[in-house]
Amino acid sequence: MNPLAPPAPATLLASYEVAALVAGERHWRDRGDWESMAQAYHGESWVRLAWFEGTGAEFVEASRSGGRGGTTRHRLSPSVVCVRGGRAVAETGVLVETRTAHSGIAVDLTVACRYLTLLRRDGGIWRISRVETICERDAIAPVMPGEVLEMDPQRLARYRPSYRFLSYSLSCNGIDPPPDLPGDDRPDLCAPLYQAAEDWLAAASNGSGV
């Protein structure tokens, strides 16, 4: 298949609907529209992030309760979408911006990552079936110029470079981040994730259901 070939109108419409849902879910989360966010997830969905792993419904409730701490906003790049029948995969570049505090100092934590989102269409409606995170890099800095942020270098060294400062921040809030998230620093963990997404799409193409 030529990836540059113009898609069929039905596929183009489905791709638009999928991209709109991926963007909408994060928008509703940031606005605190929990009802709309919950409707974005399939009943058998699963979400895995640095601070959470569980069902889509559980993820909505954890987000509502402010599980990771701080005030967080998501800046999304356009999604790259592949549709096969009633299934779709979307990969989306994301900047996750969190304002929080360390040792009484206000800080901005910025995480660059990609969301790999699997979606299925039931009754003509797209919903999210699975979300996985691929970590790229992160950074942390004081909000106020001139303030000095002190961090334990030995503790920092325990964490992987693709989400080091996020891991440090989560650990300070009592959350133990998983050491095996897919990331650009661990392509061996990314390859199986992408392959599983391709296999999942192929199952729809082969008539194995949605």
UniProtKB/TrEMBL annotation:
InterPro entries: NTF2-like_dom_sf, SnoaL-like
Pfam family, one: SnoaL_4
Signal peptide: none
Domain of life: Bacteria
Full protein name: SnoaL-like domain-containing protein
Species assigned in the record: Actinomadura rayongensis
Domain SnoaL-like: 11-131
